[in-house]
Amino acid sequence: MMKYRHDFKNALATAYALCDNMATANEGKNMLDELSRKNDENKPPFFCANPIANTILWDKSKIATEKGIRFEVDASLSENAGVDGVDICCLIVNMLDNAIRGAENADGEKEIKVKIKEENERIYLSVSNSADMPDFETSDKLPSTKKQKNHGYGTEIIKSIVQKYDGEVLFGCKQKVFNCALSISKNANACG
């Protein structure tokens, strides 16, 4: 972001200098129009009121789109969700990184669907994605599709955070759609 601001300030100064000269004013106006368009592209869309979740959803939606993955979000998470910000970050990032990797490697249509809601002092989070996996359902160890060793940290992190917040998590795949669904208690062990 700092690099973007630095570049933006320099380009803006250049555009204004071009506008000050009659011979280059048209070029300056074109540059200002382009800067305005690029600035609009860098504004995060509103997914939910929680700034951490919103920023992650924006970042991961851009990554998914660049990889040709349709990214759909239905999120309702308050600004102060009653869960440690680092834990919210780790949950969403790990779930979405796994979903992007799974959808990217899937045959056919590639998509990710994210649902987040708060209800009855709990947060419910579900991420589903296209996947080339056999059907299964588990709350324990996932069948691995990775060839290298030293993997699976993301799901272990997810399970650890869910346990910290007196929650439940379920992993499953049905008809080539992988789903990770969890619920955690708000305000439970928020600083523990």
Structure, explained:
The protein is an alpha+beta fold and 192 residues long. The protein has two domains: 2-41; 51-185, 2-Layer Sandwich (Heat Shock Protein 90), CATH 3.30.565.10. 44% of the residues lie in helices and 22% in strands. The protein is built from five helices and six strands. Helix 1 (2-20) packs antiparallel against helix 2 (25-41), helix 3 runs parallel beside helix 4 and helix 4 (85-104) packs antiparallel against helix 5.
Question: How is the secondary structure organized here?
Answer:
Layout: H1 2-20, H2 25-41, H3 51-66, E1 70-75, H4 85-104, E2 111-119, E3 122-130, E4 136-138, H5 153-164, E5 168-174, E6 177-185
Parallel strand pairs: 1-2
Antiparallel strand pairs: 2-3, 3-6, 4-5, 5-6
The shape is elongated
Span between termini: 31 Å
Which structural class matches the secondary elements? alpha+beta
Give a quick account of the main beta sheet: strands, pairing sense, barrel closure.
6 strands, mixed
Strand content: 15-25%
The CATH topology name of the largest domain reads: Heat Shock Protein 90
| Number of helical stretches of at least 4 residues | 5
Q: What's the pLDDT, averaged over the residues? A: 88
Please trace the helix and strand order, writing H or E for each element: HHHEHEEEHEE
**What's the architecture of the largest domain, going by CATH?**
2-Layer Sandwich
Helix content: 40-55%
CATH class type of the largest domain: Alpha Beta
Number of strands: 6
Strand order of the biggest β-sheet: 1-2-3-6-5-4
Fourth-level CATH superfamily of the largest domain: Histidine kinase-like ATPase, C-terminal domain
Radius of gyration: 21 Å
Number of domains: 2
Low-confidence sequence ranges: none
